[in-house]
Every structure is written in structure tokens, then in C-alpha cells.
User: What shape does this take?
Amino acid sequence: MSLAIGDAHTPLTKMVKNALRQRILNGEFEQGTRLVEGRISEEMGVSRMPVREALRELAAEGLVKIIPRRGATVSMPAVDQKMDLIEVRATLEALNARLAARRKDPDRIAALQRVLAAGEADIAKGDFSEMRAHNDAFHTALGEVSGNATLQDLIRTLRDQTSMLFKQDDPVKVRETWREHADILRAVIAGDEELAAILASRHVYNAVEPEAVTD
Amino acid sequence: MSLAIGDAHTPLTKMVKNALRQRILNGEFEQGTRLVEGRISEEMGVSRMPVREALRELAAEGLVKIIPRRGATVSMPAVDQKMDLIEVRATLEALNARLAARRKDPDRIAALQRVLAAGEADIAKGDFSEMRAHNDAFHTALGEVSGNATLQDLIRTLRDQTSMLFKQDDPVKVRETWREHADILRAVIAGDEELAAILASRHVYNAVEPEAVTD
DNA sequence: CAACAGACTCTGGTATACAGAATTAAGCGC
DNA sequence: GCGCTTAATTCTGTATACCAGAGTCTGTTG
Assistant: This one.
């Protein structure tokens, strides 16, 4: 299994963690599935330790729940927590956009524009395969403009935790999403903090798939 | 070594973590001090593993920085990160207060009022020894009123990371702090979301010790 | 006194073991 | 059959011991 984890030079723990995160976000493990250390370590061909650590870290990110003496399970957020998460995320994305509008570093904004263009180009081409990546890239780039690393970390974590609440495959929605991205970017460039903040906040709420938070 | 950690039944890792957190927040370890796994484990009479895990968790909380292959060091936030942290924290405390004002659960508010009274009583008595605990209690209680668990977690973490930026021992400042607490509570009870949010946000900025973020 | 070799210190991992909590399977009495 | 015990099995939390290789420190030497 060469591509199993890929034996590079990055810490093993990180690789295990990423592999697990991937699998969880892909829905390969359902909500509540037990993640047994021994099983995973064997499956990935590593010892238990890196797995333990990876699980702890994922727990810190909220993708996994660890109950003492009972181990880890996949933890999609409970219904009543979903809105909580979204509320927090929207607030932080708003702060992020506000800060970006305040600093509006030209270089970073240029980079952001390139990301926006890339996303729009794919949409024009009708190629939706990379949308998730483009989307992540946009939000990451926006985070760089704001320049608040703490905030970026938090948002990334929240993004992972909420990613399953958003629909990514509906072309109509995707187009809407990117229109909103463009609006946010415009507000940022204009230095309009208030507008940027409001747009970013709404952007989160708009992208939520209603059924996801209802049932 | 008997009272080193105290061999209870709670996971060892948690105890190690708490002990370390305590020592860091108390300033017993200065910024940049290396936290060598072997040394700590020996000192606390446990094996390296719980120490490793504790360090990772503290790293997730931001109290410690881990550089691959170089280990953990105490990481007070860098100057330019301090304002970042405070900005984020202020934003989240504002959201928290806003949600509290929205829900204003009577029982939780009653509890909050008791905490406020306890703090004020100690101030009246001139007893400042428990102020930090009272302060934590107030913010925790406020978090319960808002009822957003995710938010509470985040705020607690941020509180730990920023705690050293606040002065707790100046009687004048303490009195001010509690006046602000009372104001926030009043806004929450009145259901005035906007006011509660603004007051909570300012409360954070007001409590910052100017020198702490300057140098 | 700068650059380099060597000795030493730690981290990230591996393997193995084991007590005791949880979970599951097996019995057993009714 | 069905519910309750009990025994067997599975896992977690920790501990030991060990190792390769990255980093760090030190002393030397040109």
C-alpha cells in the first residue's frame, strides 16, 4: 500500500490525522462509528501512538468525540449544535472580512483575486469537480488578507466541523456562492468594513443546506 | 512525589495537563521555556506518554508551541498576536452576551446573579484573593446563559490564552470590572442584545493591561 | 575566531505488556 | 423463550524499553 499514507517525512501523526479527517469528511465513517485505536493502527500499518495522538487532535477539532475509557467515535455535531456552530462561524467570518477590509494588503488581495478568478473560470467551464478546493482556497486567501492567524485557525476548525452542513454540488447554489465571494471581495477592496462583515456573515447562513440543520 | 499529581482516578493525562497549565498561567515557567518530555515525566512520576499527550493538548489550546523534532516550549503569544487574540475574544464575548440576552433563561440568570453578588460581596469586604475565580465563574455562568456550548469552549480557550494580558490585582480595576459585569447582566436581563454585545466587547478591551500588549 | 567533528540530548516512533473498565457472549434458572 | 449473572473478550490508559535520526552543544583545530 504505497499511497496508504505515503511514507514521507512529515510527522506520522499528521498523516494519520489527515487520513482520518479525510475519511470522516467524506462520509466514509458515519456518525457514531467507533474508531478503535488498534484497528486503525493496524490498518494503516503504524503503531498505536500516532493514532492516539491523531484522534486526540481530531477531538480537539470536534470531528471526533473521546469518552474516557471508551474510546473515540465519529461525532458529527448534534442537531442543536449545528446552529450554534454556524452562528459562531458566521460571527468569525464576519470579523475576518472586517479585518480584511481594514488592512486590505494589496499583494494578498491580488492573490485573492486570482483565486476568485480561478473559481469563476471553472464555473464558466461548467467544471464543478474542484469547487470544494476552490472554495477552501478562497476562504483561506481571505483569511490571509485579514492577517489574524488566531482567527484563521479557529475558522478552519469550524469550517471542518460544519462542512457537512453545506451543499457543494448544486450548480445554482455554487454560482450564488461565487457571486457572494465576489461581493465580499469588492467590499474588502473598497475598505467597507461594515459591508464586508455583513456579507461574510450572510454568506455563511446562505450556504447552509436547510435540511442539514433541520433534521 | 505523593502530592506530585495525586493518584486519583481521573485520567493521568488530564492531571498532567492541568498541572502544567496551572504552572504556565502562574508564570512559573516563563515564555520560551523548553518543556522536555522526559524531564517532566520524571518530575511528575509518570511515563512520557501522558506528558506527550498533555503537551499536545496544551498546544491545541495555544499555551504551548510544539515544533516538530524540537519539542514543546511555553508560548506566550507574540506581541502582534496579542491584539489578534483580544480582537477575537472580544468578538466572541460579544456574541455570547448577545445570545444570552436573546435566551435569558431565568434559572441561569439567577445563577449568574448569585455569582455577581458573590464577587461584589468580596470586593465590599476588601477580599481580593478569590477575584480570579469569581471572574472565571462570572464568565462561565454568562456562557451558560447563552447556551452555546461550542462558543463556550472557544471562549474558555481564548481566556486561558489571554489571561496573562489582564491585570487582576489592581483594586480600582477590579471594581471597574465588576461594575461592567453588572452592566452586562442588566442588559442581558433587559433582553437588549445590542447593548449586551457592545458592553461585553468593551469589557474585554477595557480589562486589557495596556503595557501587556505594547511590549 | 570561524568552521567542523564528535558527543550528547531529545523527539518521534516501534514493540510489548498489563491492569482494569466496557462490552459481548454464554449460561442458566425459571 | 426471557431476563439476569457470569465468564470471556476487547479496548483503553499507562508503563518500559529501545532506537534512528534531528538538533544542540562543546571543544578543537587550522
